Each structure stands twice: as structure tokens, then as C-alpha cells.
Amino acid sequence: MTLAVVLVEPAGPLNVGSVARLCANFDVDALRLVAPRCDHLGEEARRMAVHGEALLERAQLFPTLEAALADCRRVVATSGRIEEEALPLSGPAEALSWLQGGSSPDTPAALVFGREDRGLSNGELLQAGRILRLDTSEAYASMNLSHAVAVCLHELRRCPPAPAEPQPEPCRRDQLEAALADAEELLLEVGFLYPHTAQARLGKVRALLQRAEIRDEEVALLRGMVRQLRWASRRDCP
């Protein structure tokens, strides 16, 4: 498995440096930073990175989580909370076994961690195929970012190897997002969606497709349906 650890808007350079070191500890291939709120190449980050400094220097920066996950098929996001339209929470064993069960070694899988102060939004959680919840105390569930990364990477190493005959791969994230954008445009046009409720209703559709682990050919079918429906809806327009 090719794995990318993704940090969304990290604010602490010490945390970013520590995560780079952890990536080196656990042979993680890539570190991706989404709109970092700190200098990830500054002195504090480098001091904590130690032998992970080379990986820190190679870290890729992205403006949004959607962009950071565009080339990924399997995504696990971490969270201690969840809303009804999102995916069910999974423990480390289930979520991380699924993460490494892919059959496309050249396509990266992603393990996503949220902001130190407020984690991941519901919209960001819905970009994952699984949502991982560590078994922390309900009285104080939040962990330090680098500590959470350490626990997850350790648990990943302990997971059983991927199955010999894995299930068909989910589609790439960019393909799913493009299909949803097509559908949203059409559904707004025909009046099924309204601008003030579109995000919430599309969130339910996104969760449905994530649970189904929609595949490449199914996304192509969905986009073909949307194109035909758009043509039919406009055919008799003056």
C-alpha cells in the first residue's frame, strides 16, 4: 500500500514536525498538508522532525482536502464526533484493514487528520470511505494531533495484511466529486435542489455513494444518466 498522511490546516509547527518523524518511523510514503496555518519548514518543525526532515521537505501543499484526496481511492478520516448524514464510526481494526485492502498499489490511500482545535467538518468527513474513532474516554475524547497520528500508524502496522483477493476498488475521489458536481448542477436546474439546502441534501447522497463504495464504471454510468437527463430537460426549451 502507498499511504499518504493528510493533515488539514495544522496550526502547530511542533505537531507537523512530529508527524513527519512518525511518518519516517512507520515507513509512510508521503505527507500532505491542506492549507497549513504554520510554517511547516520553520525551525520548530525541523527540530521535531529529526530523521523525518527529508519527508517534511517533500510535503505537498493543497488548498483543500478535496484537492489533496483527488488521486486516492481509499480514504480513512479520524474523528471523535459525527452527524447523522455521515458514515458510521469504525474502530481502528475495521477502518485500517479496509484502508490497506486495495488492489491498486500505485494509487495512494489516505489517512486524514483534522485541525488541532476543531477536527474535521462534516463535509470533510463525508469525503472518506471510513471514519475512525479511537477508543478514548468519552469525558475527554480529543487527543493531541501527533499523538493521534502515532496511535493510528501503530495500529496500522498491527492490522492483518490485505486480503489475497480484495474487493473491487472504489473510484478515485476526483471522479466522484466531478459526478456529484454534475448531479448538483442538474438537480438545481430542475428544482429538486434549492441553493440553501443543496449542501445538506448532497451530503446525504455523498454518504450513500461512499457506503456503496461506488466504482469507476458506476461513476461513468451515473454521469451518463445525468448528461442524458440534462439533454432531455432542455430538449423542449425555447
Task: Supply database-style keywords.
Helicase, Ruva Protein, domain 3; 238 residues; 7 strands; 2 domains; seven-stranded parallel β-sheet; alpha/beta; 45% helix; Alpha/beta knot
Summarize this structure briefly.
By secondary structure, this protein is of the alpha/beta class.
What does this structure look like?
With 238 residues, the protein is α/β, with parallel strands linked by helices. The chain has 2 domains: 156 residues, SPOUT methyltransferase, trefoil knot domain (Alpha/beta knot, 3-Layer(aba) Sandwich); 63 residues, Helicase, Ruva Protein, domain 3. It has 10 helices and 7 strands. Helix 1 runs parallel beside helix 2 and helix 1 runs parallel beside helix 7.
Order of helices and strands: EHEHHEHEEHEHEHHHH
Helix count?
10
Q: What kind of assembly state do the chains in view correspond to?
A: single chain
- Major sheet strand order: 3-2-1-6-4-7-5
> In percent, how helical is the residue content?
40-55%
Alpha-carbon Rg, integer: 19 Å
| Poorly predicted segments | none
- CATH fold category name of the largest domain: Alpha/beta knot
- CATH architecture assignment name of the largest domain: 3-Layer(aba) Sandwich
Largest sheet: 7 strands, parallel
The total tally of domains equals 2
In total, how many beta strands? 7
- Return the average pLDDT rounded to an integer: 88
- Determine the CATH superfamily of the largest domain: SPOUT methyltransferase, trefoil knot domain
**What is the CATH class of the largest domain?**
Alpha Beta
Hey, roughly how much beta strand do the residues contain?
5-15%
Global structural class: alpha/beta
Overall form: elongated
